[in-house]
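Weekly sync, protein design subgroup
Attendees: M.S., D.O., the rotation student, P.L. (late)

Item 1: inverse folding check
M.S. brought a backbone from last month's batch and wanted to see whether the design step gives back something sensible before we order anything. D.O. pointed out we never logged the input encoding, so this time it goes straight into the notes. Structure tokens as presented (312 positions):
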């Protein structure tokens, strides 16, 4: 077995489905010690509840979840989509995993108390991570790396677009970053038989993941999820499936020049940012399937499957 990796997750779970798919991978990976989860952008309270509901289904209530910053540095958040995946809450408001604590204190304490270098995994807008770097510069000494799903190589991408100032702060921080850009992630799509296996599984955690996909399908044209965020998890678990090059990433903040959040990249051997340029998609697909469809790690006593909605 690979050495245990301590991971802290920062996520905007609840909009696109790939955050929930990535969280399921982390929960089902025996080599991952998930230290905590922070939510970011817009309706962070509902996002935290979705994450906490998943933790309960995987019997992982000991992993704490904390509301992060809903407000980007210099724009209004996009809202109104988290309500669809939020249907899995069935009106429930309270979860024991959710910690009522200032976000920066929560992140700092969880990371600094890990006892080993921590991988900070960001799969949403970078507001929380940028504010952590600014408020607690010493945190850099506790991180082995920051792994991000975000940016595009000379194009616009959602996570950077939603908080360009935050993305700029992180890209300029000089910290070791491995970046999985949308140019790479957009080519990886969930196989239909994986979706059907989640639907037909005897494990309630799998059924919940299937239900989340069904709610996501209601507001998206594609019926099969693109595995943007799971690829970032894959880069942590199997770095041999990815090729990286050092690149300087510039985030545009001037609307007169280009779209705000547009990221331009150029090769730079001095850069601390390693951007993914190639991926073994077949190898990743096998990894994703094996982890996602494995029996949930702590689901020893099977519970009744959830009522299954209809998906294509």
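Designed sequence read out in the meeting:
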């Amino acid at each position: 077995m690979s050495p245990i990796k301590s991971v802290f997750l920062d996520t905007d779970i609840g909009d696109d489905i790939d955050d929930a798919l990535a969280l399921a991978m982390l929960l089902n990976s025996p080599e991952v010690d998930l230290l905590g989860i922070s939510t970011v952008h817009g309706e962070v309270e509902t996002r935290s509840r979705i994450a906490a509901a998943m933790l309960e289904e995987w019997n992982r209530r000991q992993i704490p979840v904390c509301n992060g910053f809903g407000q980007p540095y210099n724009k209004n958040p996009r809202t109104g989509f988290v309500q669809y995946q939020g249907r899995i809450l069935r009106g429930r408001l309270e979860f024991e995993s959710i910690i009522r604590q200032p976000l920066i204190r929560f992140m700092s304490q969880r990371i600094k108390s890990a006892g080993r270098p921590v991988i900070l995994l960001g799969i949403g807008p970078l507001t929380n991570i940028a504010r952590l770097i600014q408020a607690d510069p010493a945190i850099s000494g506790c991180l082995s790396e920051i792994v991000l799903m975000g940016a595009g190589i000379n194009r616009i991408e959602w996570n950077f677009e939603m908080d360009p100032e935050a993305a700029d702060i992180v890209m300029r921080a000089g910290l070791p970053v491995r970046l999985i850009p949308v140019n790479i992630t957009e080519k990886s799509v969930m196989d239909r038989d994986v979706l059907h296996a989640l639907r037909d599984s005897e494990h309630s955690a799998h059924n919940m993941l299937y239900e989340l996909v069904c709610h996501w399908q209601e507001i998206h044209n594609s019926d099969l999820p693109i595995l943007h965020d799971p690829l970032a998890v894959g880069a942590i678990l199997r770095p041999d499936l990815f090729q990286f090059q050092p690149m300087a990433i510039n985030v545009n903040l001037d609307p007169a020049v280009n779209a705000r959040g547009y990221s331009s990249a150029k090769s730079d051997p001095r850069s601390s940012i390693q951007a993914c340029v190639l991926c073994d998609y077949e190898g990743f697909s096998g990894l994703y399937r094996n982890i996602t469809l494995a029996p949930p790690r702590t689901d020893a006593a099977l519970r009744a499957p959830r009522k299954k909605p209809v998906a294509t």
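Discussion: The chain has twelve helices and ten strands. Strands lie at 5-11, 32-39, 65-67, 98-99, 118-122, 143-149, 177-180, 242-251, 263-267, 273-279.
Action: P.L. to compare against the previous round before Friday.
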